[in-house]
Amino acid sequence: MWEWLNETLLNFRNCFSRQSTFNWFVIIVIGLMLRSDHLGITSIVRELNLAGNSYMTMLHFFRSTGWSMLKIQSVWLNIIKSSPFVIRENGKYILIGDGVKQVKEGRRMPGVKWLHQESDNSADGEYIRGHMFGALGMLIGNGTKTYSVLIFARLHAGLNALSKWSGRQAPENSHVVQMICDAKMVASNIGESLLLLDRLFLTAPMLQTLSQAKGLDVITKAKSNAAAYFSPEPYKGRGARPKKGKKIKVFELFDTHRNHFVNKQMDIYGKSKTVRYFCIDLHWGKGVYRKVRFVLTEINGVRSALVSTDLLLSPCQIIRLYARRFKIECSFREFKQVVAGFSYRFWSKVMPKFAMSKCNDANQTNLENISDHHQRKQIKATVRAIEGFVLFAVIAFGLLQLISLQFDKEINRSNFRFLRTISNNTPSERTVADYLSKYLFMLFRFFPQLSITSIIVDKQFLPFHLFHDSSA
Known about the structure:
Radius of gyration: 25 Å
CATH superfamily of one domain: Transposase Inhibitor Protein From Tn5, Chain A, domain 1
CATH topology of one domain: Transposase Inhibitor Protein From Tn5, Chain A, domain 1
Number of strands: 13
CATH architecture of one domain: Alpha-Beta Complex
Helix content: 25-40%
Distance between the termini: 24 Å
CATH class of one domain: Alpha Beta
């Protein structure tokens, strides 16, 4: 297990301009995987028994220009792609995208803005102050357990002013369009892919952006008030041909076509359920009118309308794939609880204080007033540190998932951690992290020849020979 981790991390060496920079990357990733508390960089120093001066050096590392975020993302994507646990559908990779909002109270953090909180929990406020991330994952599994291993998560809001500083056009304000652009970039590197999204993403701008992405199709859900159009009637007159036919409310088909529904027993969310479904191809999207496949489903009286831009998928495939979309929600929960991937605290003293009024553009206006080159550089470095920390946490969390699938038998045989109820033969990310943390001594005692061993020991408070003493 340690040898596999060593070999995997060495793939990132070319992403760093210097060996010392790469060494700190290894330390941070392993520290995020193993730390037992979530108190920032201090946790990594304590968990790996590093020297006290390592703290400030690691803080400077996140703002360093000695590493390339795009190169790291590319290497991490290739590691996931080459995994034997990747799940495909009709030869296509299965990507899952979603947004996640993280509360941040820091008033000098770039990218922070007021965000509307869509929650049914009465304890949650209507608005929160924080960062909006767009995350993309890939579906992997070993037959008994399925994960959505995260590829990356980047800020999708609050950075318009930074783009203008670089002379670039400000990114699309729409989180939906940015998500499609991220998936398009990934699909161009790995090949044909299916992207699973929730119903928030079914918009006309999404279809317009998707039409420019080759090898990428989307499976999502329509809202209850969605309207679509039948195919246009044959036209033999002059002028432009019509793009759409008769308009219809999608959910009206549950009543008008109830005799056309088919009953089938399917495995949904790990349980066998009876699904009533009806499939029809309609045109959707104002101004776009793209033909998409609607699959109207009814499970235990709950009605839904699934949508697929891939017309070759069967209704059962669309239903089964959309049920897998929830895996990214599970990844978000474990990502926060196991590695605390959003526990960063990077800020800049040159950053204008965040406005307390609920105005989404207040912070942007403050940033646009900054003209000093040095101040702009510091704010950009802070944004880089934030996105870099999240990316390193994504890699640490993904390595735990890959270890869980590949070394499940070895971990289960050790019986190192009491579990009152074993729900799955494949250990969870939390179990893998505890296992590695408990047996960290084996890395120093039995694998001194590994690169990651020498990297960690070189920065530790105690000399190496105290860990590797043959007379002990």
